[in-house]
Amino acid sequence: MSASIWFRAREMDGSAAWTLEESDEERGHGKEILEFAMKNHFPVTLEPLAAPKNDWNHPSEVWETILGLEQQNTQNLLRIAAVADQCGMYGVKAFLDPFHVEQIDAEDKVGGILAKVRGADEALLWQIDHMLGIEAEEEDHH
């Protein structure tokens, strides 16, 4: 959401819409994982989160941060799966499988955007922004 706010403040509405859509998806994943944990009587403790980064100077820095967060999510899921495997909790591993697939796709997508943005001039940045807006709109209609 922090990335969406940053993009919106710079009138990069396509990138803002795309990152907001992704933020909503991540919250949805969190709710799914919470619901799974509660149904299986796993202990749940909520802890405060640090304020997200928001002091970027260039769109490439935003996308680098997003890619880093996606990679961190992937590693967290892999750690949970490894513990589940050690404990013989195969239902947990099965539950996590779709999230692993989504993480592979997310890292690939964000990595591709970052590669384009890194070498982009001003005109190409606006074109990328426009295309991301179209993608976000298509996702919103699904």
Structure description:
- With 142 residues, the protein is mainly α.
- 78% of the residues lie in helices and 0% in strands.
- It has one domain: Ferritin, core subunit, four-helix bundle (Ferritin, Up-down Bundle), CATH 1.20.1260.10.
- It has helices at residues 2-9, 13-39, 59-86, 90-118, 122-140.
- Helix 1 (2-9) packs antiparallel against helix 2 (13-39) and helix 3 packs antiparallel against helix 4.
- The longest helix has 29 residues, at 90-118.
- The chain starts with a helix and ends with a helix.
- Element pattern in H and E: HHHHH
Q: Under CATH, the topology is which?
A: Ferritin
Mean pLDDT: 94
Structural class: mainly alpha
Under CATH at level 1, the class stands as Mainly Alpha
Which CATH architecture? Up-down Bundle
Give the total of domains. 1
The H-level CATH homologous superfamily, spelled out, is Ferritin, core subunit, four-helix bundle
Rg from alpha-carbon coordinates: 17 Å
Largest sheet: none
Low-pLDDT ranges: none
- Distance between termini? 20 Å
| Secondary structure tally, helices | 5
Pfam family, one: Ferritin
InterPro entries: Ferritin-like, Ferritin-like_diiron, Ferritin-like_SF, Ferritin_DPS_dom
GO molecular function: ferric iron binding
Protein name: Ferritin-like diiron domain-containing protein
